[in-house]
Specification:
356 residues, alpha/beta, Aspartate Aminotransferase, domain 1, Aspartate Aminotransferase, domain 2, 7-stranded mixed beta sheet, 4-stranded antiparallel beta sheet, 13 strands, binds pyridoxal-5'-phosphate
Amino acid sequence: MSDFWSSRTKKLEPYIPGEQPKDGSVFIKINTNECPYPPSPKVAEVIKNFSCDSLRLYPNPEAYDAKKTIADYYGLKIDEVFLGNGSDEVLAMAFAAFYDNEKTVNFADVTYSFYPVYCNMFDISFNYIPLLEDFSYDVEGFIKTVGGVVIANPNAPTSVAISLLDIERIVKNHKNDVVIIDEAYVDFGAESAIQLISKYDNLLIVQTMSKSRALAGMRIGFALGNKKLIEGMDRVKNSINSYTLDRLAIAVACAAIEDEEYFKEITGKIIKTREKTISSLKKLDFIILISSANFLFITNKNFEAKEFFEYLRKNGILVRYFNKPRLCDYLRVSIGTDEEMDVFIKITEAYCNEKF
Ligand SMILES: *Cc1c(COP(=O)(O)O)cnc(C)c1O
């Protein structure tokens, strides 16, 4: 605490991002759901040929080229797309645009932990709809509750998806409030709700290029929805920062979306490695939630998650442990390359052998 801080700053409870180790002791980093493969070669080409001189000039405030490319790709209109510096920023602006003290928002007790942070920041009242015992969404609970809804599909950190049918039932029952579907991991096996946008003016989809397009370091996120929703978000954006995407990010975003073949190749590889990792872990007595994401949420009745986490870390493997109710028996493991996951399994085997 400092007397220099505003009362707003004093009451913040910021999000804690996953560790980005600097000390070289980590050999396998599978803790923040990054892509183990490089971005598309078309992205590399854009960066190589990028005009440094163009950086004298501000970028287009709408990130027009990227907007157009994304709109064309998803069969939407340009005014149905919003771009931001990573989807964390897009989500923050959406929370500020659509919820407040009276417009309550509902989300799961176990979900992306940034949501309550935004509520705190923008003075938004929120309500938890706890996940069911098996970590699936309480669809009936979401249908019955009043106010806005935010759902990560698949959910984080559980990796569990919700069906398009259930999403539609929720959206239909909240006609006067905005329903946000955070599809950060949707490309790894869940059903996107983008096709519902033309039918429901209260539905906002948020996606990111950080995971399935291997661009976490470039910070590109976007929202898709009815143009009235996008207009609301533009009002917020233009009250904070008009240029959320820089010139290089705009060019990179276009190249990444246009290289469909590479996108399919790397997401397909990650899904294959995921299934292989699941079967190896099952042989070691792990319980694994059904994953539609590029990570697994795993537990093992034979030992403590925290101790296993520390053992992995000592052996140069970094995964994510959450010291929180409902989560503290689990570890979240991102899917790396086949080689990385082979090492992870080998060290896990050694640990299991040590325990028995
Ligand atoms: C990673 C993640 C994001 C944010 O990603 P950005 O890198 O900010 O685009 C948003 N939602 C969920 C659920 C995530 O896991």
